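Me: Here is a favour to ask of a fellow structure person. Could you put it straight underneath, so I can go through it closely?

Assistant:
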Amino acid sequence: MKARISWLLFLSAASICCGQLAIGQTIYFPPPSAWQRQSPAQLGLNAAAIDQAVEFATGHEAKTVREGLLAQIHSFGREPLSDPIGPLKDRGGATGLIIYKGYIVAEWGNPSRVDMTHSVTKSFLSTVVGLAVDRHLIGSTLDTIAHAIPPIEIFGPGGNTPPEFIYPFESKHNRKLTWEVMLRQTSDWEGTLWDKPDWADRPQGNIDEWKTRDRHEPGAVWKYNDVRVNALALAATTIWRRPLPDVLKEYIMDPIGASNTWHWTGYHNSWIVLNGQAIQSVSGGGHWGGGLFINAYDMARFGLLTLHHGNWNGKQLISQQWIKQALTPTAANTGYGYMNWFLNTDKKLLPSAPETSWVHIGNGTNMIYCDPEHDLVVVARWIENKEMDGLIRNVLEALQK
């Protein structure tokens, strides 16, 4: 009996991965430049509850200013060396989408507007690292990075800077760092990259100890740090030997039917030379400007891809094994998987949501909520961080029969 149940579960999972439900009903994936809308009633949802969820989202817009530079100063201006070095953008108003069974059942604001998505960018960054693992450009996430990357030549436009190599993983501590600890933000990487030292990001403790403290062993301590995220982006760029936005476009964004309006960028000084060409190393968020600029529809497509564990309409774009690793809790912070997969472990992040759900989160707040139990994706932009659970609670109430 147990064997039969296991086999039925396997068949069910296999059929879902192939874009088919076990009973033969096709799973809907939106084609490029089109996305079918269905009313809540058509999908058996409570229309009044959906309306209430939309009202909740629009009524709890983030209180931060809309001007990009002022917002950056408000978030990070108290940090040392906090001046932006990448592009910023004034944000729009509260915006979002509710996707149920692949269909759009509600939208608000201006989902076509391209805005900074801040640290949601990190989920796209970890994805291109996963693509490198799937294609054996990286043998294992447990491999150290130092042995795998070349000397990195800095590019100075116009010959204004002398030729220079940098070695971001050559210190005694950094030579121990693996892709795994970089992906989980447990590396304690040390150094300065693009004129931003690691200690300048959300510094803690005594200022006299910022540069001299002992380093934590890799994996021991979780610390959110954008300098280290950018070091991972740089390492991944040298592995691919091409711009990461090109990789993302070819293997993820084009196959899922994303628009051509998104833009992933770095800093004015984050240029290197690879294969005799100038390539920009992109940033993993908007801390100092840059990162991914994207509309809500394209965010939702990415959310659907992760909801279906890397499968899009029968094609496995990124391996299920990678998604499994991304969803594995980090020992030093069980609410975090790979960047920037925030897990609902013990329902601490979202008490109203299933423990199996996760959220790709960025400052703003920007969020992509993924809930396989309910076949649900919710994108919300510029909502107060503390109101994420309230929004999801309202959406889930619409699913109750």
Remarks:
- Residues 39-401 form a domain with the Beta-lactamase fold (CATH 3.40.710.10).
